[in-house]
C-alpha cells in the first residue's frame, strides 16, 4: 500500500496540468514500513522529450533528486508521469521501460481535465502489471 498526502497529490496534479499538452514526470521518495510505503517528497522533473506521448526525465534533475533523497534518509519509491490523452494505465512503452520491479509507477490521466485519475502500479520483470493500492491522506 502506498500513502500520499493530499498536498503531494495536488503538487503532482498542478505540475502535470502546467505541462500540458505534453506529458509531465517526476520521482517520489519516502520510507518503507513493512509493506506500507509513505511518500515524503515529490520531485517535479522536466520532460526533456517535450512530447504528449512519452517522457524522458532530465538526468541532472534526476541525480539531484536522488542525492536529496539520500541526504534526507529517503529511498526511491517510484516515479510518476501524466497521460494527457489516455487512461491511467501503463502503455506498452511504459511497461518496456519499467526496469525496477521494486518501485511504483504512478500515472495521472488528464483525459478528462476536470476528473483527473491517479493510479499506482507495480510492473514485474515479466512486464505483468498489478495495481498498488494508493491512499491519499488529507
From TrEMBL:
Keywords: Hydrolase, Metal-binding, Metalloprotease, Protease, Zinc. InterPro entries: JAB_dom_prok, JAMM/MPN+_dom, MPN, VirAsm_ModProt. It holds the Pfam family Prok-JAB. This is Uncharacterized protein. PROSITE patterns: MPN. It comes from the Bacteria. The keyword tRNA processing does not apply. Gene3D superfamilies: Cytidine Deaminase, domain 2. SMART domains: JAB_MPN (SM00232). GO terms for molecular function: metalloexopeptidase activity; zinc ion binding. One of its GO terms (biological process) is proteolysis.
Amino acid at each position: 500500500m502506498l500513502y500520499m498526502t493530499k498536498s503531494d497529490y495536488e503538487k503532482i496534479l498542478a505540475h502535470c496540468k502546467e505541462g500540458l499538452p505534453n506529458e509531465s514526470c517526476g520521482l517520489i521518495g519516502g520510507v518503507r514500513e513493512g509493506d506500507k510505503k509513505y511518500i515524503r517528497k515529490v520531485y517535479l522533473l522536466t520532460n526533456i522529450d517535450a512530447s504528449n506521448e512519452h517522457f524522458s526525465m532530465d538526468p541532472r534533475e534526476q541525480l539531484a533528486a536522488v542525492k536529496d533523497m539520500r541526504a534526507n534518509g529517503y529511498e526511491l519509491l517510484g516515479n510518476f508521469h501524466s497521460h494527457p490523452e489516455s487512461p491511467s494505465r501503463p502503455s506498452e512503452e511504459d511497461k518496456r521501460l519499467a526496469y525496477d520491479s521494486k518501485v511504483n509507477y504512478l500515472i495521472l490521466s488528464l483525459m478528462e481535465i476536470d476528473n483527473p485519475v491517479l493510479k499506482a502500479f507495480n510492473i514485474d520483470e515479466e512486464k505483468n502489471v498489478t495495481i498498488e493500492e494508493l491512499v491519499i491522506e488529507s
